[in-house]
Specification:
about 150 residues, alpha+beta, 4 helices, elongated
Length: about 150
């Protein structure tokens, strides 16, 4: 009986070690792994609630960027929140990830830098979908600036 208990304890230790090795247990890799089945992400402007929905290849790029992002120090970080990413699978909510300055994911309030360019690509898609938010209007421009 003791031998069986030792065997089970050893097996549990090996399985746990394998899980640590496989997933790295870094927050960003764990989150990306949990989002692998997402079918869409709603990208919401943190200031006015304007949204776009991302699917397919660009969704996969964002999830991959999350997994490979690098933790950075928050000391002196001035990256204001820009977009909030809300992930779904069918009708089920999966996760919310705030972003900042189009280069930072905030995972559990800890900044991780996107070095892949996926967040900048999201920004471009957002601008293309809502050009009115990024194009100065005549009323907002100084007198004579639009001639």
């Amino acid at each position: 009986m003791q031998m069986k208990a030792k065997y089970l304890a050893g097996l549990l230790l090996v399985v746990t070690a394998a899980m640590f090795a496989l997933y790295g247990y870094s927050p960003q890799k764990r989150l990306a792994h949990g989002l692998k089945d997402a079918d869409r992400v709603v990208v919401m402007d943190a200031y006015d609630g304007t949204t776009i929905t991302i699917t397919n290849d660009q969704l996969r790029m964002v999830i991959q960027a999350l997994g490979t992002s690098r933790r950075i120090s928050s000391m002196g970080l001035k990256a204001s929140y820009s977009y909030t990413l809300v992930f779904f699978k069918a009708g089920a909510y999966l996760a919310t990830v705030p972003t900042g300055a189009c280069i930072v994911f905030y995972i559990d309030n800890i900044p991780y830098q996107d070095e892949s360019g996926a967040l900048m690509a999201l920004r471009k898609k957002f601008i293309d979908a809502h050009p009115e938010k990024f194009t100065p209007t005549r009323a907002a421009m100084p007198q004579g600036a639009y001639r």
